[in-house]
């Protein structure tokens, strides 16, 4: 493997930084609109909260739907070409939203952006798997993943400052976002090596010959334990994407936050998530036998924090609830739940199990934004949306622990 030579070492380090900035660009786009939903509503006319929530739904529906096609393109044409095509489409979609005269045009731009972003996940993690040395992969993944928190913070604070404090037109933040995406497109073109289609086909033939033996194990992709973690991840992501989409609007319209305070409070959730992820994943590695208890404790605590966000009598209590939720929420759970899946899925079907897991979580991003908006339209408040998210976290945690307790009473299954 080329990893051991000088240039190889240099390349994987550059690659990790580039992929981290790829997530930064994606998450700036994902969060740049949420603090300025009220401005978009007034600019585009009589737009309801449900219609605003559908902006995120169109994006995430396209993002989820594009995952498998994008992975096929990666296998056939390589990561570099997939990223270049995807980020070109992403740039176009962002510019469509910037020039949108109506909410329907915003939806069209969101669809294009979602399809473009779908190229990133499979390209990024297959590149890191190919070039990063095995003993550095966990650390490299932590750096790459931190880009999402950084991008979220920049998007939330940046649009709050530019639009609410400086009076910039809402669509100008989309032009800035499109420029950042285009810069990443150029960096991908210049810095990522072309795909080498080599030995992968030999390996895959070996695996194909084994797969008939393991076909019975295919059903274990839907074993009770894996179904429980898929559902748990749906519940975890539901609360997260509800927060990402509606927290800024809730803080402004129901809690009296103004200007930069809206984006700043929301960005805190993202920023404290990075040390939370590092702390709890290292804890799970040290105490593997306690992993299930740790997951359940984190989920229930996260649910309580979401409920306390609404119940908080003052700004200080509300901020404490948000910071604690960020520290022990989705990003802290991601590496632990992925580890849980990889330990229980059959080796030959690992990628498929992780794909189902990821799809389970991302499907909540299609449901949570419009459902919370619909609840807000009916009740006049987003509070019930927070309570629903909290209830789902507790329900997911209880289902998860019941299934795992039942599994422990059965004789252990051999793992090859």
Automatic annotation (TrEMBL):
GO cellular component terms, semicolon-separated: plasma membrane
UniProt entry keywords in alphabetical sequence: Cell membrane, Membrane, Transmembrane, Transmembrane helix
UniProt-annotated location(s): Cell membrane
Membrane topology listed for this record: Multi-pass membrane protein
TM region(s), chain numbering: 12-32, 52-74, 81-100, 106-127, 139-161, 173-192, 226-247, 259-280, 292-311, 317-341, 353-372, 384-405
Domain spans labelled Major facilitator superfamily (MFS) profile: 15-408
Gene Ontology MF terms in the entry: transmembrane transporter activity
Pfam families: MFS_1
Identification of the protein by name: MFS transporter
Organism: Photobacterium lutimaris
